[in-house]
Amino acid sequence: MSFRAINQKYLEPGSQILMVLGIVALCQPWNMLLHAYGLTIILVGLIGFNITSKIAPEEQAGTGHGADARNPGAQH
Q1: pTM (two decimals)
Q2: Neighbours of 9 (CB within 10 A)
Q3: Own/partner long-range contacts of 40-45 (Cβ < 8 Å, ≥24 apart)
């Protein structure tokens, strides 16, 4: 499994989940420690998502095209 496949399968969704957990931590009323670090958790997830979303997915086997196969006019 290549790094691009790991990124697409685990890292990008993981950073999205981290952002949602940060929002939950910020809004919950029971644990002051989670509330104090809620914004930090959101920011770590946001930075992680910004990095992982810039990595292009693996090219599909046999076609020679990556994600731009659906939208040939896309520019990066």
Answers
A1: 0.73
A2: 12
A3: 44/18, 45/15, 45/16, 45/17, 45/18, 45/19, 45/20, 45/21
CB 10 within 8 A of CB 55: no
pLDDT digits (tens, 9 = 90+) for 20-76: 999 999 999 999 999 999 999 999 999 999 999 999 988 865 555 555 566 666 676
Kindly report the three-state secondary structure assignment for every residue of the chain: CCHHHHHHHHHHHHHHHHHHHHHHHHHCCCCHHHHHHHHHHHHHHHHHHHHHCCCCCCCCCCCCCCHHHCCCCCCC
